[in-house]
Amino acid sequence: MTSDSHVRLTLPADASFLTVCRAALSGILADAGDDEVEESKLVLSEVCAAAVAHGDGGDLRVEFRPTAGAIEIVVSAPGAETILDDPVAREVMDRLTSRWSVDRDAGDGNGSVTFARRLR
Amino acid sequence: MERNTAGPTFTQTEVDESATIVHVQGELDIDSADALRDALEAAEKSVGTILRLDASDVTFLDSTALGVILASAQRMQERGARFELVCTSPSIRRILDMTLISRTVHLLP
After folding, report:
1. Among A19, A43, B72, B100, which is least packed, fewest CB within 10 Å?
2. Predicted confidence band of residue B4 (pLDDT cuts 50, 70, 90)
3. Which of B93, B87, B94 has the alpha carbon at shortest distance from B108?
4. Interface test with B, best of A14, A17, A19, A91 (most B CBs within 10 A)
5. Angstrom distances, CA of residue A56 to CA of A10, A35, A68, B3
6. Residue spans of alpha helices (H) in chain B
7. Burial class of residue A104 (count of CB atoms within 10 Å of its CB; 0-12, 13-18, 19+)
């Protein structure tokens, strides 16, 4: 798959838009099983909720990078360190992703969370 | 900016003097956490010995909603009452099992 298959969403950093993020992911994972979709939606929702909570109210950006047998998602928001400080949220990340990391852009200082899941 | 979307709906039913059921339908996430907290706190006022949250029509549950449920369950436990959570979705059940919520919340079925 090429970068052409990447999907980028830019939405207001408001919790009421998380349902849109989840709906987008459901569409992208249309060929995956129900469990796969539900677990992926939970992970995405936890990360986006943290980004919204820690951000400065600017746009929330979500990039979906599907590859063969996996999906990588990057979530970023201005001003957000997007630190996943909730213990349950961290447990979700540890258990339901194959890898995840919190990064900070050296240029604009925006925080981001990148995570990946293998698709069964 | 906020989206004007329909959040979850809550229906409270008094079964008898001892039990109160709150049935919730829809998605429970950080956006609907306040509504969930309000519904549970309202039910706690009238509840006798059992507060049952019927989440069999919940299609999504995140850690914030889980925290709200746990807080209500702990308040019930302090009163010597029982908090029951009905969850029939296998994917949500797996998420609940990942946490230690079953120490405080009685999971049904």
Report:
1. B100
2. low
3. B87
4. A19
5. 15, 33, 35, 18
6. 33-46, 63-78, 90-98
7. middle
Contact of B79 with B48, CB cutoff 8 Å: no
Per-residue tens of pLDDT for chain A, all 120 residues = 555 689 999 999 999 999 999 999 999 999 998 889 999 999 999 999 999 988 887 899 999 999 888 999 999 988 776 678 888 888 899 999 999 999 887 777 778 999 999 987
CB–CB contact A20 B66 (8 Å): no
Cα–Cα distances (Å) from B53 to A21, A110, B101, B109, in that order, read 27, 39, 14, 12
Residue of B nearest to A41 (CA): B60
Report strand pairing: A99-104 vs B9-14: unpaired
Residue A16: both structure tokens together:
């009421």
Buried b (16+ CB within 10 A) or exposed e, B2-35: eeeeebbebeeeeeeeebbbbbbebbbbbbbbeb
